[in-house]
Specification:
The protein is α+β, with helices and mostly antiparallel strands. The chain is built from two helices and two strands. The protein is flat and about 55 Å long.
Length: 117
């Protein structure tokens, strides 16, 4: 830190403080904060008994995994695979029309991407 006192012709003095640049590049003059990710749990017993990463709060711990009977039936019927194509869906289903609209918007945006007003 460099401190310079300027004495202009006015009766008050002006003090200017210069801070040394701590980072190079785009963020000049800013102190770079280092963010570290969450710690990886490698304990096999804890991985089998707790839902690791579910607790989003700073305090507290991850919840315990309950028996299968305590969870609703629909939870185990969710489709976790890759999304289906338009020709794999039934034409009278809501998912079909949502995907059709989404693909139409994508196509429209691609076609109008290069056009100028």
């Amino acid at each position: 830190m460099k401190q310079v006192t300027l004495k202009p012709t006015a009766p008050c003095a002006v003090t200017v403080i210069y801070f040394k640049t701590l980072t190079k590049g785009k963020g000049k003059g800013m102190v770079k904060e280092v963010f570290k990710g969450p710690e990886v749990c490698k304990d096999p017993v804890r991985l089998c008994t707790h839902a690791i990463g579910v607790n989003i709060f700073k305090q507290g711990e991850d919840p315990l995994i309950k028996p299968k009977e305590d969870y609703p039936e629909w939870l185990f019927q969710l489709d976790l695979g890759p999304p289906k194509n338009l020709n794999e869906l039934q034409p009278d289903s809501r998912e079909y029309w949502k995907l059709l609209r989404k693909e139409h918007i994508w196509r429209h945006n691609k076609l109008h991407k290069g056009k100028k007003m």
